[in-house]
Backbone:
């Protein structure tokens, strides 16, 4: 890739200025976005960015700058500016920044694919969305329901990075990603009642992944279940019952009530005015917060996952991270700065979504590890309960302590059998009570993941992630409805 020499030149300039540490990240992002609204193409286009981000550490203060004009003169000027920022920061900091000590790494990695999205003509991409739209409308015609709201998006992403720092680490990466998004609204003509649901898919893979997803069928199935909910769902039970949660709800709970509050920068209070605070404190490592069957993991190393990476944006090799192990807080998500403050090594959670964004602590693929229960075994001894397969709405407070999920596709469980659909059961519970109530977790073959762009930071950064797991059973839960 062109201009790698300027990233290395930035390091040379920083070292001549006597910085304690300097890193440079050359990054190119290219997004192709296609949007179809109620059968009409809208807002399709190309988003492109290319530049160099530079961070320096001087006297315990950090400075970050970026540049997208590729001349030595401007790079030198920007590095000098970063040094001035770092020196000014060091004078007002109560405690100097200390980066964790990490091994020098020299490597490269790229997405393995069969069909490069960049080689697929725009007309073909639009045709895919039109096929999805037709499949949704066919369901409405067959079941005599109106589907007036159909928002469909297809996006492919190419990211090139060249990372280098003053310690000797050099890493190149090329990442291809594909994602799809849909919002479907169905209306019952006779009553005017409506139901709405979204669907999100994503992978670090080529366009061959579209055959695996089968978006026309996936979206048609979603439209059909929304119509059934609208016509058949009955009032939910509101007494104390056993609840089985599907992978979608398990996944969002892992992401929101474990992943976010376990981000070390959040624990240290550095996201309070942006993404919120955390009920988790540094001294809570080793504290029990769930039952023994609860193991919540964040793992960037899952091949083809939407949150996949081999090295983070500070050059640290990625690894699987056990946030909760057998119900006990096991580790937090760290970059080199927070790891330095904790006196440990980074676990490679630093991610930056563009050349002009600083790497911050982020999740990758957050999920509940599988147990050994089949779905039939999860429900067989439930006398009265609810299976909340998906949610229509969720909410969680800024400290990630109180959480609320409103079921979308949900069923009554009676004497160990799935019965009729129930309308919008509400699970409202604290995070410790949620995870402490889990007494059984489904097998690996029941695992599912959902893609998302996780928002954090100021300026904002949307990081591609997965969250999911197998179904899980919670005992003695008071539901609302």
Residues:
């Amino acid at each position: 890739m062109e201009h790698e020499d300027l990233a290395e030149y930035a390091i040379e300039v920083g070292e001549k200025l006597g910085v304690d540490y300097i890193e440079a990240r050359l990054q190119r992002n290219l997004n192709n976005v296609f949007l179809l609204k109620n059968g009409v193409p809208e807002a399709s286009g190309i988003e492109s960015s290319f530049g160099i981000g530079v961070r320096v550490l001087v006297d315990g203060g950090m400075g970050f700058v970026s540049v997208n004009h590729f001349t030595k003169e401007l790079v030198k000027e920007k590095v000098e500016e970063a040094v001035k920022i770092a020196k000014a920061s060091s004078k007002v900091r109560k405690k100097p920044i200390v980066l964790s000590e990490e091994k020098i790494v020299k490597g490269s990695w790229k997405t393995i694919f069969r069909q490069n999205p960049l080689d697929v003509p725009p007309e073909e991409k639009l045709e895919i969305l039109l096929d999805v739209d037709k499949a949704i409308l066919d369901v409405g015609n067959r079941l005599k329901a109106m589907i007036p709201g159909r928002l469909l998006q297809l996006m492919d992403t190419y990211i090139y990075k060249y990372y280098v720092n003053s310690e000797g680490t050099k890493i190149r990466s090329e990442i291809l990603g594909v994602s799809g998004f849909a919002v479907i609204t169905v209306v019952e003509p006779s009553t005017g009642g409506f139901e709405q649901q979204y669907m999100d898919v994503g992978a670090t893979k080529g366009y061959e992944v579209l055959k695996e997803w089968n978006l026309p069928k996936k979206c048609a199935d979603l439209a059909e279940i929304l119509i059934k909910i609208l016509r058949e769902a009955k009032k939910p039970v509101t007494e104390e019952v056993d609840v089985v949660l599907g992978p979608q709800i398990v996944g969002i709970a892992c992401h929101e009530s474990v992943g976010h509050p376990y981000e070390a920068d959040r624990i240290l209070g550095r996201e309070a005015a942006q993404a919120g605070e955390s009920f988790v404190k540094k001294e809570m490592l080793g504290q029990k917060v769930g039952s023994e069957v609860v193991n919540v993991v964040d793992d960037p190393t899952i091949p083809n996952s939407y949150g996949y990476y081999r090295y983070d944006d500070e050059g640290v090799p990625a690894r699987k991270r056990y946030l909760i192990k057998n119900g006990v807080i096991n580790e937090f998500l760290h970059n080199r700065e927070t790891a330095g403050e904790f006196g440990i090594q980074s676990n490679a959670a630093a991610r930056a979504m563009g050349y002009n964004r600083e790497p911050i602590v982020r999740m990758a693929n957050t999920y509940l590890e599988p147990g050994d229960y089949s779905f039939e075994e999860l429900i067989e001894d439930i006398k009265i309960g609810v299976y909340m397969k998906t949610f229509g709405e969720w909410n969680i407070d800024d400290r990630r302590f109180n959480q609320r999920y409103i079921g979308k596709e949900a069923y009554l469980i009676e004497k160990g059998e799935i019965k009729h659909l129930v309308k919008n059961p509400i699970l409202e519970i604290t995070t410790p009570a949620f995870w402490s109530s889990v007494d059984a977790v489904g097998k690996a073959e029941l695992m599912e993941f959902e893609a998302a762009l996780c928002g954090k930071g100021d300026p904002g950064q949307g990081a591609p992630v997965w969250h999911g797991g197998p179904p899980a059973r919670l005992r003695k839960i008071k539901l609302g409805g």
Remarks:
- The chain has a mean pLDDT of 96.
- Residues 240-480 form one domain.
